[in-house]
Amino acid sequence: MSSPRNAVVSSLAFALVLFGFSRAASATTYVVSPTSGNPNLGSVISKLQPGDLVEVEGGAQYPGDIHMTNNGAPGKPITFRGIAKNGKLPVISGGDYGMMLHANYLVFENFEVKEAKGAGVLMKGNEVTVRHVVVHDCTNHGILGTDEETGNLLIEYSELYKNGSGDRHHQIYVATDEDKFKGSVFRMQFNYLHDAKGGVSVKSRAERTEIYYNWIEGAEYQELDLIGAEEHDEGVAREDADVVGNVIRRTNGGAIARLGGDGSGQSKARYRFVNNTFLMHPEGGFVFRAQDGLESIELENNVMYREKGPNFGLVREEDAEWVGKTSNVYGSNNWVNRGTKMPSGVKDTVYGSDPGFTDKGAFNYLPKCSGPLVNAGTDTPTSPAKFPFPKPLALPAMSPVRSWLAVGASVARTNAGVVDIGAFECASPPSLGPAPKSSAPFGLDGGTLNGIGKKKIAVALLGVGGIAFLVFRRFKKRGVPSPETAKKASA
């Protein structure tokens, strides 16, 4: 026979379970539209609880300065979802900040955000996802992640353009709180960034940065600024970065990426670049600028091409402060212009005058199947034993696209033989697979943050096979679709 104490404990446990089921069952969907009882997002913000969904009607404009401070919960995020109407997304316009996501476990998806003075979207929380948004014409930053109260962040399937100003305001600028959320990751994937008004395309001070399958071009300064946290305390963390499967293109002179620090914080980190296509401006002087404290740079299977020829350096090191006091640039199987001086730690380089792109004038950087990039990479990119990179994405499973993609409309990369050098595989023409029925994220909680989800890869592979011929003809005739065309198709 149970004791009175055990009976009380059992009753309390049962009550808690019932409460949990009750709360899950009572998750609410709110509809925001100009003609509803909730004409703007401000009218529902204070009511939201874990698991709630806010559906915002498209074809209408809503005022900015929305400040979300209610937390979701693990497995029960609070979701803001735009619902297209007549092909048009809801627009959040103006304000100091368009949408401020100042809480944990939030999802913000399917919106257009424009003309904010501070940032179009501000991320200040843990497990915050921004998905399938277009952010443009914001005076300072397009998307900003603060260095206090910020943990895991995900930006995917989004387009940013005409954001930034001067040298301190950028298309994307992210940091994480290394005291409150140790081990946090900022991941961006399947995005299209272009035509900035100032700053850099992506500036990250996050504890770990993962940049996968993006098309990035058109910054005023460098395209990537991967550096240390401001006022970095000794022994807090290295701010490592894993950069895999991207096209990164400079449209004016200067470096493609700055690594280490900018004078206000140094990472002392490890940087890994695998299967990227780096396209320098004809007047560009070098690919990477190493500055302040950093530990190592690893380069595997990358194309680093300057159309005008080899008069550039791979890494500018004069401002670097290498951990261990010696230059640590390693890797293998990269393609560079003939005559480029490679660091001694980079082996098996493929030199040439033309990497053999299908049609670079149309931004089609798929390698010709008879070209020098094909089967010229390494299937086992390996960090040097002295500087092993933690939890790397070994080889790319997808390819980037120069347009704004619908969620899940990814390009699967199928390697035939040895992996090709660069962001594309000759055997995998740029064919868009259909978006899956479910647009669930890869998930920052689900253990897939450091590896692409198998289900999405399978969906993309199946989709590619179904429409490869038709889409390949479109790419062959026209190149990649314009952003305007892609927006109409994706809305």
Key traits:
491 residues; mainly beta; ten-stranded parallel beta sheet; 3 helices; 11% helix; globular; disordered C terminus
Residue-averaged pLDDT, rounded?
Answer: 84
How far do the termini sit from each other?
63 Å
Strand content: 25-35%
Radius of gyration, whole Å: 23 Å
Broad structural category: mainly beta
Q: Unreliable stretches, pLDDT < 50, 5 or more residues?
A: 1-24, 434-491
| Residues in helix, % | 10-25%
What does this structure look like?
The protein is mainly β and 491 residues long. The chain has one domain (124-490). It has helices at residues 4-25, 454-478, 483-490; strands at residues 29-32, 53-57, 61-63, 66-68, 78-83, 91-93, 97-101, 106-114, 119-123, 128-136, 141-145, 153-156, 159-161, 172-175, 185-189, 192-194, 202-205, 208-212, 215-217, 224-227, 240-244, 247-249, 257-260, 270-274, 277-280, 286-294, 296-300, 303-306, 313-322, 329-332, 335-337, 346-347, 350-352, 357-359, 364-367, 398-399, 411-412. The strands form four sheets. It has a 23-stranded parallel sheet that branches. Strands 4-7-9-11-14-17-20-23-26-29 form a ten-stranded parallel sheet, with no helix packed on it. Strand 34 and strand 35 form a beta hairpin. The longest helix is centred in the C-terminal third of the chain and has 25 residues, at 454-478. It is globular. Residues 1-24 and 434-491 have low confidence and may be disordered.
